[in-house]
Amino acid sequence: MKNLISFMEGVMRHNLFAGLVLFFVIFSGGVLDAAEYRDGYLLVRFTETDFTAQADQTRQAVVDAATGGEIERMYSLVPGLGVVQLPPDVSVCTARNAFQATIGVQYAEPDFLYEIQAIPNDPRFSELWGLLNTGQTGGTPGADISAVPAWDINTGSHEVIVAVLDSGIDYTHPDLAANMWVNEAELNGTPGVDDDGNGYIDDIYGYDFVNRTGLLVDNIGHGTHVAGTIGAVGNNNIGVTGVNWDVRLMALKIGDQFISLAAAIEALEYATLMGAHITNNSWGGYGFSQALYDAIAASGEAGLLFVAAAANDGLDNDVTPAYPASYDLPNIISVMATDHNDQRAVFSNYGRNSVHLGAPGVNILSTVPNEQYAAFQGTSMASPHVAGAAALLLAENPDLTYSEIKQILMQTADPIAALSGLSVTGGRLNLYEAVRVASEDVFPPEPNPAQWDIEPAATGLNHIVMRSVVATDPSGVEYE
Hints:
Layout: E1 21-22, E2 27-28, E3 31-32, E4 37-46, H1 53-66, E5 70-74, E6 81-85, H2 92-100, E7 105-115, H3 147-151, E8 156-166, H4 184-187, E9 206-208, H5 222-231, E10 246-253, E11 258-260, H6 261-273, E12 278-281, H7 290-301, E13 305-309, E14 332-338, E15 357-360, E16 364-368, E17 372-376, H8 379-396, H9 402-411, E18 414-415, E19 427-428, H10 431-440, E20 452-458, E21 464-468, E22 471-472, E23 478-479
Parallel strand pairs: 8-10, 8-12, 9-10, 12-13, 13-14, 14-15
Antiparallel strand pairs: 1-7, 2-3, 4-6, 4-7, 5-6, 7-11, 16-17, 18-19, 20-21, 22-23
């Protein structure tokens, strides 16, 4: 284990960690500077990509030529990507350099570690200011995502699956149990047997990729909290409600306080394999990983929308990119946190070009293990509002692609003066407008022609100079 660096969940002061936080930095000159990674393992992308006995022999020959060791696992999501267990006497740094210099290797990097950073009758709904802000917390009435009018159109669908890559979900929680994704083949199969042949045993509600078990336990509460914001059961006269009253939540545990990059990639592969539509990723940090980039890109090719928290250090992601939120991939939507006055949360990262929109992320009440509820804060809490919104759009219009969902969410965001210049939209999520547009199946042009190529500026008492950007709608019509 090397020098630990991390960012915490905003200004949260709970004993439970409030966010999955990726805190690795990239190799430079063969030395891993101030990064945390798993000793004894290396992620390697081989040029040989087939899944045959001959391909396995070819890859093992590459491993033997580098430092020796054994290939522990090959991924199907990213062709050629695998995890290599190194010999006991070989350091990760030495191995990385050796593999990079070996023919048959596209790239090699450490197995980086992460740190876990219609009005319903639910009795604590009135505390959910992010869904309906009446000033009940001392904030500004209306500084919310307009959930109530959105629910007059749609409250969700059990056909939509959101994978929560996090610390696990307490699938027995009374406010979540009915909305858990269930692998029926395993539920009705034989314990200890891979009944559906997907390579995982007893993965009934998802899988724990750290402890290699289908028995999911959320030890820190973060994943359960995120899940509640996305889809706590609505109108069940219990606790709170999620953005979706009805949805399916796939529990993919990638760690407690520490998890590995390999676990996150495997979880993303599983989500793709098992039919998830959206993934929520309330974790992030400041090191670029080519393997993670490739995995997210591949999930996008399979149609998954990847919703990511922008990070919690008050930094400009345009200057200091936070990953995975800052990867320049079309299926990523990056989310900053806002407070109950529609201001940027003091801890939230931002970025005029790299963060897409804001959502409530301060003192957010949601589910935690053992039938409890708690308020957390961070961009980790903002991200599931957007993941939940994406799921609600898909419930309303199942034919939407991830690019159309992303476009609608961005173009219907409420412009907020305090957020101007802090994200691509300068706005905060508006669930009602987004669902309304999805229901009408009429999409505005992209970018919106109200955005200016030349900002309006007065040149005298009677003249204003301005020019709009050129925009194109889905039918190909241009606006300017």
